[in-house]
Amino acid sequence: MIKEIEFTKMHALGNDYIVINETDGEVIPEESKNSISDSLCTRRFSVGSDGVIFACESSVADVKFRIFNSDGSEAQMCGNGIRCLAKYVYDNNIVKKETMQIETMEDIKQARLTVEDDVVKSISIDMGKGFFKPEDIPAIAPSGNSEEFINEKVPLENEDIIMSAVSVGNPHAVCFTNTNIEDIDLDYYGPLLETHEAFPEKVNVHFVNILSRGEIDILTWERGAGFTYACGTGTTSCVLIGNYTDVLDNEVLAHLSGGDLVIKVTDHDDYLTATMEGEAVTVYEAKISVEL
Q1: pTM, whole model, 2 decimals?
Q2: Residue 106, pLDDT above cutoff 90
Q3: Rounded distance, CA 126 to CA 117, Å?
Q4: Using CA atoms, how far apart are residues 275 and 174, in angstroms rounded to an integer?
């Protein structure tokens, strides 16, 4: 069966997505979402993107956010993707609010839009709480520590990589390094760490250069997608870990391959939360025929 679908191509700092509106009903059948997402994301043979976002009706929030990676797997949360969704539903009069509640697989996120003359300039997302306990990430600390996964020696083929891990709805492993991130062979380290036995549900991988307590550079390998120009949850995770280990301040400007994000951390004594602010861009609208 061939079906023509409408979509919008968007990006947030070069992390690009295909957005499909399902707020008025199902466009892609549930049993086909994985395979169709995989097909649509294939660069040079289809639209091409890092993932497919579905804007869905929600019974508990203004709108529901679902996102599928370029390999067809569904992700719990995506910081860059959720900013695209917020702009999409505002621009298309689906949720015409400058503060909106968005349901994700993890929980409900609050988005605050900065709007000038009805144009969305930037979006701030309440990223919620950082989870450092290994069972909550999930991760298995090589040292056997069941309380946190911080500065652990993760064994690879011929070396150990010092990494820390946290979850902000999806798992992230971060390496603060003195090696210039431009000199890191991400195609080598990314797959090895993503699928490492220390991370039973795989993991997003980030290498970070600390420029100052308030500024960092990040290189990202995204679970299920590979190298990405930017990762919102990953940037949040890098700053949360840096703040937790007292190498970064509460407000950090992060430079990613696709642009900049500002992360603000709030210390609630026994846990940390964060907000992320950045832009989202609509590239074009189109139709494509897919085989169901």
Answers
A1: 0.87
A2: no
A3: 24
A4: 18
